[in-house]
Amino acid sequence: MSESSGDNRSRGNQRGGNRSSHSGRNGQGGYNRGGNNRRGNDNRGGQRGGYRDDRRDDRRGGHRDDRRDDRRGGYRGGRDDRRDDRRGGYRGDRRDDRRGGDNRGGRPQHANRGGAGQRDDRRRDRHNGPQRSGYREERLNLREREPEIPSDVNPKELDPGVRQELRSLSKDNADKVAGHLIMAASLMDTDSDKALAHARAAKDRGGRVSITRETLGIAAYHAGQWKEALSELRAARRMSGGPGMLAVMADCERGLGKPAKAVELGQGPEAEELDAEGRAELAIVVAGAHHDLNDYAAALETLRPESESTDLPPVTALRVTYAFADALLATGDIDQARQWFTRAKEMDTEKVLDTDERLRELGGA
Q1: Phi, then psi, of 14 in degrees rounded to 5
Q2: With 23 labelled, which of 53, 98, 207, 352 sits at a CA distance of 20 to 30 A?
Q3: Residues β-bridged to residue 31
Q4: R_g (Cα) of the chain, nearest Å
């Protein structure tokens, strides 16, 4: 993974963040933003509960390619092996495997997204308005440096909902973008740098389509490029609206050493638009940000409503339980922390968390 952006979160002591399952593909190639169809083997939460795409070596309880050891609140890009194929696109719908729908993470449906009323960007795809000197040469150089799309990648395998969004592009270019989206999705867990290269190529070819910006944002996030990730996710949100990827964006702020900004995002009006799972994911990130600020009481209170929720999918409920236990421990409430770690252990049927170790540390069973 590329570490050039730097992870400014204090490492080693942040054990319970939220890093969601953004690499949870739904088998159609859409990139689930943490939906209710998550299987129990979601290794998120194994890394001390973080939401981030934890890719550091200190895997205190998870087996993912976790690259951070600050587990007290990140967006963790949980990898639950839902990519049964490479059907690309980082769609991230927090829903249950929509094959054609686009209702991403609380985003409003736009009548013109990929439909007949959508403005035709085919010309813009080839000639995006006034061009500065050297622009065309830059584009040609970028195309020459594009990562190769394997011959067995079929653009038609792209998730139909994602494919719909590419209709504003010329057919040949849409096929290229689809191939890069498929490759970005399929490589996200195994080679984040190559995934990032494919995502950048998709954006270069289809930057006016929100899904390319979102995919690049998530790929950059997985590669630890927080600034680029934040920029692209903001662009995707401007283009399509809604609160999608709010928890990832908050975690990027943490990665940039701005936990107060992460807290601010968690308290903004868009957070109110999230569904129960999205709110829980964001709460874990915000709790981690409070921990970064040494405000352990605020971290605990951020998680308390989610710890009482009955509307969460099992995996999300597990991560919230773990994060809440860790927050209790940070405030010095060892007895309650032990009880909540025990509860998390009972919920963790896949044994992806490090609850046994945590309980041993606390003198529990």
Answers
A1: -115, 90
A2: 207
A3: 25
A4: 20
Cα 304 → chain centroid: 23
Per the document, the length of the chain is: 365
46 backbone φψ class: left, alpha, beta (φ>0; ψ -120 to 50): alpha
Q: Give domain limits for the chain.
A: 24-106+136-361
Question: How many Å apart are CA 193 and CA 1, to the nearest integer?
Answer: 6
Q: What confidence tens digit (pLDDT) does each residue in 135-152 have?
A: 555 555 556 689 999 999
Higher model confidence: residue 123 or residue 233?
233
DSSP 197: H
Q: Contact, 207 vs 201, CB < 8 A? A: no
Q: In 3D, which of 338, 343, 344 has the Cα closest to residue 362?
A: 338
- pLDDT for 27 beyond 70: no
* Main-chain dihedrals φ then ψ at residue 311, nearest 5 degrees: -105, 15
Place 244 in a pLDDT band, splitting at 50, 70 and 90: confident
According to CATH, the topology of domain 24-106+136-361 is 1.25.40
**CA dist 217 → 31, 100, 232, 236 (Å):** 12, 22, 5, 8
